[in-house]
Write a structure and sequence with these properties.
With about 300 residues, the chain is mainly beta. The chain is built from no helices and 30 strands. The radius of gyration is 18 Å and the shape is globular. The N and C termini lie far apart (about 40 Å). The structure holds calcium ion (4 copies).
Length: about 300
Amino acid sequence: MGIGLLVDGGGEDLYRAFAHAQGFGFVSSFGALLDADGNDAYGLPVEPVLFYSPQQPGAANNSLGQSSAFGWRRDATGTHLGGGIALLRDRAGDDTYNGSVFVQGVSYWMGLGVLADADGDDRYNGLFYAQGATAHFGVAAFLEGGGNDTYNADVPPIHSAIGLAHDFSVTVFVEDGGDDTYFGPDRSIGASKCHGLGVFVDNGGDDHYEAAHERAIGWATDYDWAEDVCGDSDTTPSYGFFVDAEGTDTYVKPDGAPGYGDGMLWIPDDPVDATALEYMGGLDRDGGATWLWAYGAEHTLR
Ligand SMILES: [Ca+2]
Ligand SMILES: [Ca+2]
Ligand SMILES: [Ca+2]
Ligand SMILES: [Ca+2]
């Protein structure tokens, strides 16, 4: 319980740690890193493995940093303690963010994680729960102000990134401008599962989207299935939405992906369980077009 602040007024800085750093908020805590200027490098290495990761046991560190909020969930005594608040604010410069599991605007168990980078051509890499991702009643915001940014081009991501919400969580990912390049894993780029709400918005630029799995770019699942057991709720849906508001964009699709593309509207069907409460889809607004889009009550968003 407490407050931890790192405030840097400028200069080109190198931040290195293994875990619990660069904006980490544990139970009843607030941890923030504020950097005013400069081309900075934020690093939380994948290996050598010193901090156990339930998502990547023995293979990668549990980073819990670069704006990562974390709570104490269901230990052996049945104790629960809600997570804290984590913030990483970088105002300018061409920055690089490299991390492992739980990095870059993420939250787990009642926490709030915010990454806000205002300007510059930035590079983000994370393996699992990265760049706006939440698990188990978490809330997170990933806010990018501009520049030509690149997501997961240097290290192949594994799962859950770029606007993903899992298990009663809420995630908002907003990219406000620039020609951006996105590489997303399974459950990414506006996705949710198990009663989550995941929203992805890119407001401008000519962007490139490439997902390694069809469950991305406006996708939600809520079914009771061996891989993804979450109760098949009759009352609480999953929501996964994608919006690209401007620019001429390219999309690379994996097998089975919905028919998304530049200037298109898509509403995927869940091939696993037609009765699950899943609200999903995407909208790409074309470069020159200006149009009003209305959705009638006769349609079912699924
Ligand atoms: Ca700096
Ligand atoms: Ca910077
Ligand atoms: Ca940027
Ligand atoms: Ca963009």
